[in-house]
Structure formats: C-alpha cells, structure tokens
Amino acid sequence: VVPLTMDRMSLLHEGKSTSAPWLIGLGVISACGVVATLAVSATAQYSVTTTRPAIATISASQLRYQQTFSTQPLTVSSGTTQDNTVQLTDGAQSSPGWSLASAVLFPLSGILAAIAFKLAGSKPVPIALTAVTSQKMEARTVQLKTFMADSHTSVAMMAVASAKKPVGIKSPVFNETCDQTGITLSRFMLEVARANPDLQELESVFSSIQTACKTIAKLVKRSAIDGMTGLQAGGGAVNVQGEEQKKLDVITNDVLKRALKFTGRMGVIASEEEDTPVEVDNTMDESYGKDVLVEESGGRYISVFDPLDGSSNVDAGIPVGTIFGIFAEDDDCKLSDSFFDDKADMSEAMKGCLRSTLKPGTSLVAAGYALYSSATHFVFTLGAGVNGFTLDESIGEFILTHPNIKIPPRGKIYSINEANRLNWDAPMKTFIDGLASGKNRGKKVYTSRYIGSMVGDVHRTLLYGGVFGYPADTKNLNGKLRLLYEAAPMSFLVEQAGGKSTTGLVRIMDIPPKNVHQRVPLVMGGSDEIDELVELYEK
C-alpha cells in the first residue's frame, strides 16, 4: 500500500499532443479498438468492487483517499462516496472469449498507436500518476498568552500567530570515540551541525560561548589572587536592578558580550548587567568583499544571559555560574505597536531590539549554563534532551560526562530560602511543610539543601532530583529571579530533562516578557512534585 499525502498529491500528466488531422484519426481508431476491447471484457469477465477508507488529507475538504497496488489490475472510480471513501475495482480471471478478443484487438490498437507516435516524431509518454509536491498555505492559529499581573493574578490574552512548523532535532551519533579525549563539546556541535544543517551557525555560537566560559572559570578561580574580589569601583556601582555590582560582574559581562559579538551571528544581546538590549553591528571589514566571497548571516540569533549568577557569593568561594538563552530572529512573537504607546521618546532602533528580545521561553532554540565549582560544568539543550560536559583543564576542552540528563519525577531534596517562610503564600507553605514532614504524594521525607546560587542549586536538582524554588513573598511580590535570562532558560533545561517549571499559577515557558528585567516567582523540579504544587494553588 502506498499512501499519498497532502504534501505529495498525485496529478495526471499527459504527453505532447499534435493538431494534425491524420494523427487525430489514427488516435480515434486506436481509441475505438480499446473501447471494443472493454466492451468484450464487460461481458466476459466479472469484477469485485471494494471500498477503502481515506488516509490522506486533501486541501480544505479534508477528503482522504488511498491508491492501492495489487497483483491484479485496478481501476479507480472518478468520484467518491458520501462517506469519503473511494471504490477500487479489482480485475479477476478472464473467460476464453475475452482471451480471444484481447488477442486480436489489443495488438491492433497497439500497432495503430505506435504508428501515430512514430509519425509524430516523439516518444510515447504514457499517462500516469505522478507524485508532485504541492504548495501549502501558511496555517494560522490562535494562541493563548499568559503573564503575571502580580504574585497572585494570572492574566491571559488571545493572539493570532502563524503556526510554527515542528522542527525535529536529530541527535548526534558517535560511531567512534577517542579513548584519550572522549567526546568533546567541539566535536559534539560538529556532529549536531552535520545532522541538522539548519543549526550550522549555532556551532560558531557555542564555540564562542565555551571560550567565554573557560575564561570566566579562570577569572573566578584567580579572583582572590588577582585582586578581583569586592565591589566595582570600591562600592556605589549598581546595575539596572539596583544591585551593587561586583568587579567580576562587570568583567565577566564584557567577556561574554564580546565573545558573542565576535561570532558575527548575533543581532541583539541582552544582559543582566545592561540597562537595555544592545544591537550588534555585524558589518564586515571592507577588505573582505574585494578578494574573498564571504557569506554573511546578518545576525540570525538573539542572546540573553546572566554572566555571573550568584556573584554575591563569589568572594566566599561558593559556586557561581553563567546562564544563557538563544532565540532565533524571526517574525514570531513580535510586540504590537501599542506596546510602545507610552514610550514616545524611544528610538526606532531600540524598539527593534525589544521586538527581537521580548519573547517567551517557548521561542528559545538553545539554553544552558556553566557552573564554576570544584570542576567547571557546561550543561545545555538544543530542544532535544540535556547533555552535560566537564572541563578537562589538561587539554582545555569540555568533555561529555553527563549524556541525556533526566530528572526523576520525585526526588528527596528541596532547595529554597526557608527564612522567607512566613512571607509565602499559603499553598507554598503547605507544599514545603509536606515535603519536610513526608506528608506528600510520594510519602517521602525531604531534606533541605540551599546554596543561594541558582546555577548550583539547579545543577544538583537536575542530577539528584527534587525541587528548587524562589517563590513570591510579601517582600518580593513578583519573585526575585529574572524571567528572560534566568527563569526561562533554566525552565527550558528542566523541561527538556523531563521536569516542570511554574510560578504556581502559570507555566514559566508560556509567559511573554513585558520588559527585559521582569521578575517572576519560580518553582521547578520533578513532574510529580510540581503537579502537586499546582493543585494546591488551584484549590
């Protein structure tokens, strides 16, 4: 059975015709021979008609049909029944009369047809079913967009958007590895690019990100020796959130920003340490265009990042990390013009940056983090699972050490600042009390482990299971973690590892940012644990 789908519809293609009257006459004589043959067959053979269900969609009518090939000749009826089926007539054994008639009439009609084509000077082109790719119109769907008006209120709005074509990411295959080096991050991304040609430009992006992370790992390790501890400018320097900047905040931001810029693939960059998104100038040097043909993407990607998460702990030698997310430049999730009604003094360039940057987590094409601790870990996803690498300082390469990370549905550790317990919502109090006491669905007594560095706590949660959270409280009504470059990228990772992430009321990945530094409540972990928390909020 060969199903014919909507994308490959079968059309009849005919051979060339001629207007010469004598050729037309020969054609008529040939046709008469065929008709006579069929007339004989009608009295000499029997037929069986079967009805087959439809299996392939045809345009708006949603008519389905199927062409079946068998050992017997098939005739497809020209119409369809009311129940959207087609009738197929299977030829059966012939009688002696049919054999005699066909032995005389078929050769005669065949000879006449051959003479006609010979005189026409062209080779015979039989009429046949030919697979042809048809152009499909772009589908449009209505999407539900949600965001938090405050820590207790979820607002939903409807938006019409183009339906995205599902993109399947092929996982890299390694038929052979080196015993001395293992699978490096560089080779991993090379194989990803080979398996997914559309992601080739991400190879250079990840090459620059891993170089920046190696540099930051060195800076963190030598910060006390090189005098890079303490506050920027001796104190008083603050970022856009009003947080005092450490020396390493400023240095690491510059390292990562320049590394991404130098790829030539970035259109816009947004950072925790920058007040607004920055448009990247990808103009090539004039000399490139004179002698060398260079293909330029024009900044296909948008990067958002926190260069040094947990930097308040860096002077004490506590693990810190880098969080990043990568969006693709496209026409989806653009802000409406009304978004800028109260921003009359904003330049058009800045409006363009915001339109490119303010996207929900569902638009991410890649996300990850680097953890600077007893070892330097690099964990990321491209939307097809989560893989973890560890830096081998002897060769300067990240080596695959944690392939296909999966978070269990329920763990036994929760990571949360319990000093804020009295300021939490009632559902959050009930949830954490249940974990600590064992009065939860899993009937497990959890233990508390909290570093105070999101990357460190989430890394442990990914590997061991459990729950990480920074919920809303009376002091921070909208939570404390930033949606765009902390909550969304980390939620992408957790979901790709089989977990879930929520504010308690809304899935983190569904929230469209209203500004670059928007904060949200966040709780993430195993699927069973988060489902239990959401049910408490829904009561």
UniProtKB/TrEMBL annotation:
Endoplasmic reticulum listed as a keyword:
no
E.C. no: 3.1.3.11
In this chain the Fructose-1-6-bisphosphatase class 1 C-terminal domain maps to 407-537
Q: Per its UniProt record, what InterPro entries does this chain match?
A: FBPase_C_dom (IPR044015), FBPase_class-1 (IPR000146), FBPase_N (IPR033391), FBPtase (IPR028343), Fructose_bisphosphatase_AS (IPR020548)
Domain Fructose-1-6-bisphosphatase class I N-terminal intervals: 183-403
**Which terms does the UniProt entry file under GO BP?**
fructose 1,6-bisphosphate metabolic process; fructose 6-phosphate metabolic process; fructose metabolic process; gluconeogenesis; sucrose biosynthetic process
Per UniProt, the enzyme's principal EC class comes to: hydrolase
Q: One GO molecular function term?
A: metal ion binding
Matches recorded under CDD domains: FBPase
This protein's UniProt keywords: Carbohydrate metabolism, Hydrolase, Magnesium, Membrane, Metal-binding, Transmembrane, Transmembrane helix
Highest taxon, organism lineage: Eukaryota
**Cellular component GO terms, alphabetically?**
cytosol
According to UniProt, the name of this protein is fructose-bisphosphatase
| Gene source species | Phacus orbicularis
Give the source lineage, highest ranks first. Answer: Eukaryota, Discoba, Euglenozoa, Euglenida, Spirocuta
